[in-house]
Design goal:
With about 325 residues, the chain is of the alpha/beta class. Helix content is about 30%, strand content about 25%. The radius of gyration is 24 Å and the shape is elongated. Bound molecules: adenosine-5'-triphosphate and magnesium ion. The site of adenosine-5'-triphosphate has 13 residues, from β2 and α1.
């Protein structure tokens, strides 16, 4: 029997989930998922609508109880450590909620009062970092989606988190807001904070994350480093129009590492090729007297892989396989 007062090892992972599962009304939302997030890592959780991202993050935040599996946060479990298992953990799922009739700052003061400790002393810096600016003096009821998102991040920072959990933090943000959040996340990770964030956008995750879990129908279709994911990615796909598509198709037939096909509407060619191979093809077209009129990236390598792994559509929970049910300790 573990001693409930024993301290976790100093190098414990921020998140160590094994076989975590949750169903709603008989439908599987998370189907026995393993997840490890190390300190100072930015971990992306990507997946189509209904993949189970919010449910997974809700379990980590203690908002939804798992049906099965084990969860350790910095080595601590809810069973052994109670509410202390979530010391140093902050974040929100879906839209962060606040009192609409109070200002942003007043909401933070209220939260800091509830959190206790030195949370109050962090209000000014949390507001500055989140980039809310003068909007902090306005009532939250009048906030845009992006302003609420920024206030949600400020509220999380009050807790001086070592694990920050953000559910689609850039949804509703303008491009400058997205850039701010990305910079903030990288800076926190540089200070050793583990950041786990969800997103629909593979390309956004590529630019921001060290590790990635691609979820589909409650399962991890991929779990590894960004570099490992890139290694597995197929060639990107381009759309090509030329002065003579028929001839352009003929030029393509003799080369490997290159797949050229006519689009269904006959108006363009689709080309799948790595960069060097594509360069060779374009040069070959020129040599054959065929002019390239447009050449545009249609699906990046990572997006292609994402679609391959997730089937390209929303998850169908009803068809998800049964999770192996293990007893949740505690
Ligand atoms: N409170 C709930 N009650 C019933 N079903 C739920 C509940 N929360 C989630 N689900 C179901 O669980 C599955 C996973 O939902 P979840 O919200 O975790 O997906 P998601 O990956 O966050 O999707 P999105 O990208 O749309 O936010 C869906 O089929 C959803 O309908
Ligand atoms: Mg969600």
């Amino acid at each position: 029997m573990a001693d409930a007062s024993s301290e976790a090892p100093a190098v414990a992972a921020a998140v160590e989930a094994r076989g975590l599962a949750r169903r709603f009304d008989g439908a599987v939302a998370v189907a026995g998922l393993d997840l490890t997030v190390g300190p100072g890592r930015v971990h992306g959780l990507v997946g189509p609508n209904g993949a189970g991202k919010t449910t997974l993050l809700s379990m980590l935040l203690g908002l939804v109880r798992p049906d099965a599996g084990t969860l350790r946060l910095f080595g601590r479990t809810h069973g052994e450590h109670g509410a202390r298992a979530r010391d140093g953990v902050a974040g929100f799922v879906e839209a962060p909620r606040f009192y609409p009739y109070l200002t942003g700052r007043a909401n933070l003061e209220l939260l800091a009062g509830l959190d206790g400790g030195d949370a109050r002393s962090r209000i000014a810096s949390a507001l500055e970092v989140s980039g809310l600016g003068d909007a902090a003096k306005a009532k939250v009821g009048g906030y845009s989606v992006g302003m609420r998102q920024r206030l949600g991040i400020a509220a999380s920072l009050l807790r001086d988190p070592r694990l920050l959990i953000l559910d689609e933090p850039t949804s509703g943000l303008d491009p400058a807001g997205m850039r701010d959040v990305a910079a903030l996340v990288r800076r926190l990770a540089g200070d050793g904070v583990a950041v786990l964030l969800s997103s629909h956008d593979m390309d956004e995750v590529e630019g921001l994350c060290d590790d990635v879990t691609i979820m589909h129908a409650g399962r991890a279709a991929f779990d590894g480093t960004m570099a490992e994911l890139r290694d597995r990615a197929p060639a990107p796909e381009f759309l090509l129009t030329t002065s003579d598509d028929e001839k352009a198709l003929d030029v393509a037939t003799s080369s490997d590492g290159l797949v050229v096909a006519r689009e269904a509407d006959g108006e363009a060619l689709s080309v799948r090729a790595a960069r060097e191979r594509l360069d060779e093809y374009v040069i070959a077209l020129g040599r054959a007297g065929i002019a390239v009129r447009t050449l545009a990236l249609r699906t990046s390598a990572l997006k292609s892989l994402f679609f391959d792994l997730t089937g390209g559509g929303p998850a169908d929970a009803a068809t998800a396989a049964e999770p192996t049910l293990e007893k949740v300790p505690g």
